[in-house]
Specification:
Elements (H helix, E strand, L loop, with lengths): L9 H10 L3 H23 L28 H8 L18 H6 L4 E5 L8 E2 L4 E5 L2 H9 L7 H14 L5 H16 L29 H13 L5 H6 L4 H37 L2
Parallel strand pairs: 1-3
Antiparallel strand pairs: 2-3
Keywords: Membrane, Transmembrane, Transmembrane helix
Length: about 280
């Protein structure tokens, strides 16, 4: 019903279903009906709702975004929650280096895989983690369906963010993605959608921040956090080559320091041996 009637409201759906129930079933169905609408909405939109639900059946994830279906139609409520976000005016460049693998290995940003469409690209844990909605198959389903419940432009742009984070022809990202998949399997968690790695690869003009409307502000924030991230360990110092001069300076200094310590240690050992030989063979 939700898929075929995007202009339906929660009350109209409840009334329609209740009307089809027998009289003795209506009193018992209220709680189950409410939960069923919430479940159907989550399956259709991959977003939880904040409607009244049974505490025995509902699992809440702390801090996740919820869709309010108490007033208005499903379509209007979705459009209000997922409307364009272009409030930040900062100009950022989305270079080729800006992908999920480098967010983690260079920026130290944890990738948190989410099943909540509304939380895609949202920063968490004091800007040290980012949510990524990876269900490309869900997006392609809506892209190919005749339903207008999710704006086509939003679906298309979300697929482009996946192409940005997981460029299809980047072998290093492919290996990283497969490693993430194995880690989830080992932990017995839900697997990643393999189609997330098959959304194409953006050209230079397609990576312009102005080409993103719905996810504009979240991309700006994510890119700023990535740009401001400083290496915190040796691995990040080695991987972070965004500032070439600084990278070469650091490693030249590190090599000079290592050689200085090495030759100093050799001289100390040599001096100790000379003293030992002098006393042992007077």
């Amino acid at each position: 019903m939700l898929f075929k009637q995007p202009d339906a409201t929660r009350n109209s759906i409840e009334a329609e279903v209740t009307r089809k129930l027998a009289g003795d079933e209506r009193d018992e169905a209220e709680e189950i009906l409410s939960d069923s609408i919430n479940l159907a909405t989550r399956l259709l939109l991959m977003m939880p709702t904040d409607g009244s639900v049974s505490s025995r059946r509902y699992v809440t994830v702390s801090g996740e975004t919820k869709l309010s279906l108490r007033d208005g139609t499903v379509k209007d409520t979705l459009n209000e929650e997922m409307k364009a976000q272009i409030f930040l005016e900062e100009r950022v460049k989305l270079e080729k280096i800006f992908n999920a693998r480098n967010l983690q290995r260079i920026g130290g940003i944890k990738i948190r895989w989410t099943t909540n469409f509304a939380d895609h690209l949202r920063m968490r844990e004091d800007d040290t983690a980012v949510e990524v909605f990876h269900y490309a198959s869900f997006l392609q389903f809506h892209q190919n369906s005749n339903s207008s419940i999710i704006p086509a432009a939003l679906v298309e742009e979300t697929l482009r963010t996946l192409a940005l984070l997981f460029p299809e022809h980047d072998k290093a990202v492919k290996v990283w993605f497969e490693r993430q998949q194995k880690q989830l399997q080992t932990a017995r968690r839900m697997p990643l959608d393999a189609l997330a790695r098959e959304c194409g690869q953006l050209k230079a003009e397609e990576r312009q921040i102005d080409r993103f409307v719905y996810w504009h502000d979240r991309l700006v924030i994510l890119k700023q956090v990535f740009d401001e991230a400083e290496p915190r360990n040796i691995a990040q110092w080695w991987n972070d080559r965004r500032k070439r001069v600084q990278w070469y300076t650091f490693w030249v200094a590190a090599v000079v320091l290592a050689l200085t310590v090495f030759f100093g240690l050799v001289q100390s050992i040599e001096g100790a041996l000379q003293v030992y030989l002098a006393y042992s063979h007077p």
